[in-house]
Amino acid sequence: MKLRGAVVVGCAGVWAALGGSLAVAHHAVTAKFDDANRLELRGIVTNVDWRNPHVHVFTNVTRENGAIENWAVELESTVLLKRSGWQHDTLRPGDAIDVSGPAARDGSRQVWGESVIESATQRQVYNVNDTGPSRPQSPRPTPRAANGKPLLGFEDGAGGYWAYPSSTVLMQAGANVQMNGDGILARLADAPRVAPFQPWALGVYRHRQERHLADDPGFLNCKAPGAVRQFQTPYGVQFVEDPARQRIFVLVGGGNRNYHIIYMDGRDQQGQVQGDDDNPLYYGRAVAHWEGDTLVVATTGFNEDFWFTNGGLPHTDQLSLVERFSRPDYDTLRYEVTVTDPGAYTQPWSSSWELRWVGGEDLPVYFCQDNRS
Amino acid sequence: MMNKLITTAAALLLFGLLGVVSAQEGHPLKGSWLGEWAGNSVHGDNILLILDWDGKAITGMINPGTDNIPLGKASLEPEGWVVKLEAEGKDKDGSAVRYVIEGKLENLELPNRSINGTWSSNKGRGTFTASRQ
Prior knowledge:
The complex is a heterodimer of chains A (373) and B (133).
Chain A: E1 7-10, H1 15-22, H2 29-32, E2 33-49, E3 56-62, E4 68-74, H3 78-83, E5 96-104, E6 110-112, E7 115-118, E8 123-125, E9 160-163, H4 191-194, H5 199-210, H6 217-220, E10 237-242, E11 247-252, E12 259-263, E13 285-291, E14 294-300, E15 320-329, E16 332-340, E17 349-359
Parallel strand pairs in A: 4-6, 12-13
Antiparallel strand pairs in A: 1-2, 2-3, 2-5, 3-4, 5-7, 7-8, 9-17, 10-11, 11-12, 13-14, 14-15, 15-16, 16-17
Chain B: H1 2-18, E1 31-37, E2 46-53, E3 58-62, E4 69-77, E5 82-90, E6 96-106, E7 114-121, E8 124-132
Antiparallel strand pairs in B: 1-2, 1-8, 2-3, 3-4, 4-5, 5-6, 6-7, 7-8
């Protein structure tokens, strides 16, 4: 089959168009791929590597001089592709495809599959169109536990978790700074408006932005999406409430798929002897109480080994959070957070967003460690 | 000479036990640093630095356990990532040795980032290099 050679198309104005698809990636796509260096490829599929964190379609591309090059077309995770109706055999070896998207920054033969079209049918495949569960026409009432408080988790036997956050980036309330779904600023000059940084913290934030978040330990080392970040990941969180033991277990669907405990037994905000008393944690130590229908969670004791937000906002071990969770209706979780970290910020600051209920399911099976040596 | 040997042995023991460089995504100077202030005839060529950040000031100690030289003034200027450390130790006769270390923080994104520059004192001067452990 005659194939078109790889064509490089410069295009500087695609940042905004990419934003939507980037929001659901495990890592910042622009950390690896250059929006300003776009490729169009036509090739023959040689293999589909259907694994997390990213699916790869390997494709033989024939250059104009007849040489054949094998390219890797990187796509979203299996979870997101399956949600959009695609399977591992949607494409098979031998299929001809046309691909366009940003090229790898390191010059290797990799391209982000922003558009993958089956040449024979002109059908677009492996695109992610995951808009989440549809909302009921009228709000359903908030489910409540035996004590009358809102359930943050699922009712007995039903299953369900929270995902599809209305914002995947963190900035102080009222900042209104333009950034994409991964937290990459549209204009680096806006960095000081994102949060009330100390000078060093602003410098670190700018440095991470300038490097397109390529050093994100959540991606490089599968570090936990601790603190705020767990509530802005594409794979959601699940609350498992255990009133008998006065604990809420928060299961994290992305990253390295771990959990933390919110203690409801009135204990002091202190570490557990021979546990975390001298060992700061990715998720800190969380204690909570109810204020009306709002669960108020106070957390301290974070370590400094992870990024606590998408977009690379720095923090120190002086970080403390006050999170307020409320469920105004069955399908909505309201999340409000006040960030206090005198090691990195000049004053406390706040933000809020909502998550949507995914009923009848448990968290998707996703491990960032997959497909790593 | 003995100081130098002890410092080197302590460094090898400490960082040998630690094994790999620990992650550090907070203040970029915080942590343990191992390096060399070349030509330092008073405290030896090898240097250990323990640095911390309390939210307002950089604190720390040079060669803890051997020379125990506390840091005085210390600063990190994000514009250019310029590091300046001042400390006052003593020589074997008990005379004050006032150190100034000036350098640039490099490879900020890496756990084993480094400081490269110069050191000077009333007893000498030379190149300075240290990397975070």
